[in-house]
Amino acid sequence: MRLLTDNYNSKHGLKLVAMLSIAAFAAFTLPGCGGGTATTGGGTTTESGGEADGSDSKTTPVFKLAWSEYPSWSVFGVADENGLLDKDEGEMGTIEKKYGVDVVLKQAEYETTWTLYGSGAVDAVCITNMDILSPSDSRASVAILPTSTSNGADALIVADVADIDALADKEVRGLEASVSEYMFERNLEIAGKDPANFTFKQQDPGAAAQAMSQKQDGYDAIAVWNPFVLQTLRNREDCRVLFDSTTIPGEIVDMVVMGKDSLDKPGSADFAAAIIEAFYEVNKLMADPEKGDDTLVALGAKFSNLPLDDMKIVVKQTQFYKTPDEAIALFEKGGTFMSEIMPKVVGFCESHGILTKKPTVGFGDPSAQLNFDPQYIQRVKDQ
């Protein structure tokens, strides 16, 4: 089992990516393959060997999704393996054929997916509700699908710390300006404590987990996410979870977000529907009594090479929005996510210097820079 990967070290990071220049990727395009024409996001691929101008051929809209290794996003890698989607341009899975759209899956490290999305090199990206705030300032965005929420996957692990008050005398190690620090401060607030009285010190989560596992001095409390949570608790029997994200359900949300510019292109609604249906079809496989374990094993192979037993824990602590009804309820206009949770998330990002400008956030509001829109999920549900 791997302890460290570059992707996990960066997962949910905010400040670093917010400062990355998108200019270096402005000219980025993914290579065409399988006889299709090379395109940028929202382009077309030529079928049946016809000319690129489409005079004697049928053209299929091409859209690109950037995803990184995380439980509910690795679903798209499994969808590719199961033939629901085909990650390559010019090749189509069953769901792509159904909607008449060519979905290109671009797997990359988390920071890279941000940059690809911000530059317009891809049409959609797998990203958290916190992390999309910065890119949406320069590229108006629409959240088309919530995939999961942290329900214990982010945790504060302690050794020889009796209670929250005792934390005031300790340094809590974790990734600053990330969901780890957000989870930490929100739990302090829930307990009636002032985060200003506690010390959160910048530390790579993988390095923090390894240092605590080795009982290094000064590592009495770490704020990390899975797989580091599972690994640290197993490596040190005297460690325990003091608090975790189960206290803030629905606040740390993993999503698929699409650029408004891409949604203005022909075939965009079909692309959104294909991505959404593929996600739910893999969730059905995970729930199937005969195919569920094999699907979880396939998912674990893409998430830190975790075995089946670990993945059964992971998908409980990273709670999937398995059905359209669950997703639509989250994106409901006037619901808790809109009226209470997103204002908290935006406020945290502002107070920690993550945002240079506060984006407008809406629910079913086309004028908002970041719009949470359930209409694409509703389309799949109504079929």
Can you give a write-up of this model?
The chain is α/β, with parallel strands linked by helices and 383 residues long. It has 2 domains: 274 residues, 3-Layer(aba) Sandwich (D-Maltodextrin-Binding Protein, domain 2), CATH 3.40.190.10; 94 residues, Periplasmic binding protein-like II (D-Maltodextrin-Binding Protein, domain 2). The protein contains 16 helices and 14 strands. Strands 1, 2, 3, 4, 5, 11, 12, 13 and 14 form a 9-stranded mixed sheet that branches. A 5-stranded mixed sheet has the order 8-7-9-6-10, with helices on both faces.
How much helix, percentage-wise, in residues?
Answer: 25-40%
The overall pLDDT average reads 87
Strand-residue proportion: 15-25%
C-alpha Rg (nearest Å): 21 Å
CATH superfamily of the largest domain: Periplasmic binding protein-like II
- Quote the distance from N terminus to C terminus: 41 Å
Q: Name the CATH class of the largest domain.
A: Alpha Beta
Counting DSSP H or I runs of 4 or more residues, the number of helices is: 16
